[in-house]
Amino acid sequence: MNIILFGPPGVGKGTQADNMVKNFNLYKISTGDLLRNEIKKNTNLSRKIKSKINQGLLVSDKIISDLIVKILSKKKYFNRLIFDGYPRNLNQAKSLDLLVKKYNQKISCVLNLNIDKESIIKRILGRLVCAKCGLTFNKYFNPPQKKKYVCNLKYLKTRLDDNKITIKNRLGVYTKKTLPILDYYADQGILYKIDGRRKINQVCREICDIIGSLGTWLCKL
Prior knowledge:
Elements: E1 2-6, H1 13-24, E2 27-30, H2 31-39, H3 44-54, H4 61-72, E3 81-84, H5 90-102, E4 107-114, H6 117-125, E5 127-130, E6 136-138, E7 156-157, H7 164-178, H8 180-187, E8 191-195, H9 200-212
Parallel strand pairs: 1-3, 1-4, 2-3, 4-8
Antiparallel strand pairs: 5-6, 5-7
Helix pairs in contact: 1-9, 2-3, 4-5
């Protein structure tokens, strides 16, 4: 089972993806993380990627596709992926369909989390990411607790691209280029809409119910 977790920036895709990893023994593939790891290499390509991300713009489809191929070609990820933050436009969606077929896999469902603009801004500005383990929290909605977070608080950082100007740009890009993908997956009959304004555990429960209804996958909740 491969799953696409879809929704605007700040809707909580990362948090729900982490829950799905634990509940269904899947692997999360975040293109944002892949790009940030590439940036650390300090090459001409990494500097171009960094500039785009800091402006809230998208990197080229080819760069993203090459990164995704590296993941799909690994046996341990076979039909066990959660795509978080990909695809972000219709061309990427069609490219992903071709890639999963090439590696004898498929997209089982697309989960679309919905939320209002005001909540998005507050969630993004309050986001905290652990530089050590990669877990994501929010100082307003989901603060780190000892039973969930074992790393030192000093590792919690705000991402450089989490600011009001970048948020505005990212929402504009999302509305223009990413929303059309919903119709593409709706036509395939694999799109599920979820109210992302609710509490984290409520959203998680609905996601578990949806995935459980698609086959023999059992939720660990």
